[in-house]
Amino acid sequence: MIEPAKRSFDFEALPFDACYRLMTATIVPRPIAWITTISSDGVVNAAPYSFFNMMGSAPPVVAIGAMARAGQPKDTAANIRDTGGFVVNLVPERLKNQMNITCVDAPADIDELQLAGLTSAPSTRIAAPRIAEAPVAFECQRLQMVETGPSQFVIIGRVIMAHIAEEWIEGDDRPRVDTPGLGLIGRMHGSDMYARTSDLFSMPRQTWPLPGKD
Ligand SMILES: Cc1cc2nc3c(=O)[nH]c(=O)nc-3n(C[C@H](O)[C@H](O)[C@H](O)COP(=O)(O)O)c2cc1C
Predict the structure, then answer these.
(1) Is 98 in the pocket of ligand 1 (CB under 6 A)?
(2) β-strand pairing of 176-177 with 136-149
(3) Could you tell me the pLDDT band of residue 7, with boundaries at 50, 70 and 90?
(4) Closest protein CA for atom 16 of ligand 1
(5) What is the mean pLDDT of the chain?
(6) How many Å lie between the centroid of ligand 1 and the Cα of residue 173?
(7) Does any ligand 1 atom lie closer than 6 A to the CB of residue 38?
(8) What are the CA-CA distances from residue 188 to residues 72, 92, 185, 191 (Å)?
């Protein structure tokens, strides 16, 4: 195979904003954690984070990347550091505008759920509320926060409760989720591009030995 011409970038020499642009333009699509937290003063906070994924299942673990803002931790990171719990709500296309409002750089004492016209619902095991309108919510407990740069954190959390809209779930013993029905969106490149999770194809998983390779 002849490697196509490539341009190489030295990430140790490049300014951080250029690294950010190259990474967010290529690491796509990214699922969006719409995170609700509560401060030690009881102020509810909501914000979208697309540096997010599932990181394990036994026990169930998620991780989130929170960059610094003006040299300080973002409110989400500060609240998780101070109070330990957070909720990962997932974002369907019908709630995209509300999600976008919660991304605004509001002062720490502003309840971003109220600002976006969303309803908070009590969580079962943690103090931070869920977003009632979101079809999926995972209640999480902080396991570790790794400071990967000044005031920049990877937040690792254990999922202790899940809430999934009845509408999209069936079966009792082995519940099955209608994933396409959820209509979740993901983050793409640039500051404003998103993806729907509806352009699907199927590829059955292979088993050893591979056909024609023995
Ligand atoms: C779709 C989307 C995804 C985002 N993902 C991240 C992310 O992964 N990490 C991050 O630090 N900021 C991310 N942001 C920006 C934060 O949402 C924004 O800085 C917000 O004001 C943080 O709020 P907080 O201070 O209440 O936590 C994202 C914004 C949008 C719209």
Answers:
(1) no
(2) unpaired
(3) very high
(4) 103
(5) 96
(6) 37
(7) no
(8) 26, 15, 10, 8
pLDDT band at 110 (very low <50, low <70, confident <90, very high): confident
What digits encode the pLDDT tens for the residues 165-186?
999 999 999 999 999 999 999 9
Sign of CA dihedral 194, 156, 131, 177: positive
Q: Is the CB of 66 under 6 A from ligand 1?
A: yes
3-state DSSP call for residue 99?
A: helix
Mutational pocket test of ligand 1: of 45, 49, 91, the residue with most ligand atoms within 8 Å of the beta carbon: 49
> Has residue 214 got a pLDDT over 90?
no
CA-100 nearest atom, ligand 1: 31
The DSSP 8-state label assigned to residue 128 in this structure reads: S
Ligand 1 centroid – CA 186 distance (Å): 13
pLDDT on residue 108: 77
Instruction: Pick the atom of ligand 1 nearest to 48's CA.
Output: 17
Looking at residue 170, its amino acid is E
Q: What is the pLDDT of residue 109?
A: 84
DSSP reduced 3-state for 132: coil
Which residue bears the tokens 């509300």? 98
What's the pLDDT band for 146 if we cut at 50, 70, 90?
A: very high
Cβ of 48 less than 6 Å from ligand 1: yes
